[in-house]
Amino acid sequence: MLVAEKVENQAMFDLCLELGFEYFQGYFLKKPEVIKGKRVDANVQSAMNLVSALQDEQINIDTIANLVSQHPKLSYQLLRILNSPVAGIPRKVESIREAVVYLGLTQLRKWALLITATSSSNKNIDQLKLLLVRARCCQLLADNSKNISSDVAFTMGLMSGIDLLLGIDRQTALKQIALQEGITKAILLGEGPLGKLLYCTMCIEQERWDAIEKMPSPIRKALNHAFFDALRWANDIAQELRQ
Hints:
By secondary structure, the protein is mainly alpha-helical. The protein folds into two domains: 1-30, no CATH class; 31-242, Hypothetical protein af1432. The protein is 66% helix and 2% strand. The protein contains 13 helices and two strands; from the N terminus they run βαβαααααααααααα. It has helices at residues 10-18, 42-53, 61-69, 72-82, 96-119, 125-143, 150-159, 162-166, 170-176, 181-189, 192-205, 209-213, 217-242, and strands spanning 3-4, 23-24. A two-stranded parallel ribbon has the order 1-2. Helix 1 (10-18) links the parallel strand 1 and strand 2. The longest helix has 26 residues, at 217-242. The chain is globular, with a radius of gyration of 18 Å.
């Protein structure tokens, strides 16, 4: 098992990857600090209300557009992300309604959820990036599963760090967001297929090499590929959010 230590930035990570390292440690992969608290300010509460509304499977594009329009910063960042290479849309998107033509409600919900959570956070971009890596890694692992929705997995990964994103206690946050029961149980109790998927992702995020070594070889291989791909994707998103 090859472990690269003191990985401080993207360039160092890419070099170690080319040299054949399998696992990595360092500031570039640093786990964000947890800040707990019970008080929820108005901006955070507004973001949580929108995140909760986006979980409604019956929500339609008009409702999403109206909700997003109430958050100017979200509207701006969402359209900018959708018009960047990371979204993969072949033409310029002028409105939220137009975006659904290319993305569909499920994908639009994912992007709106991501931007809502990150734009409402006072965390620095590197800490946000780690949570984006977690969400994307969960999504990519779910792509290899027959019984887990990749979009649900992404939501679970991002919402598992809602306390980090919004700076409030996890229990407080999850009580106010209408997540699917399976997502909540996976986050709080590690239950079900989603819980196992989150466990694998957290193992590599937290550099728990002993636990990873005990996983079957196909799972280790899939986890490595998903994590590396997620790092690159999250870096692209972070660059867009910096602008």
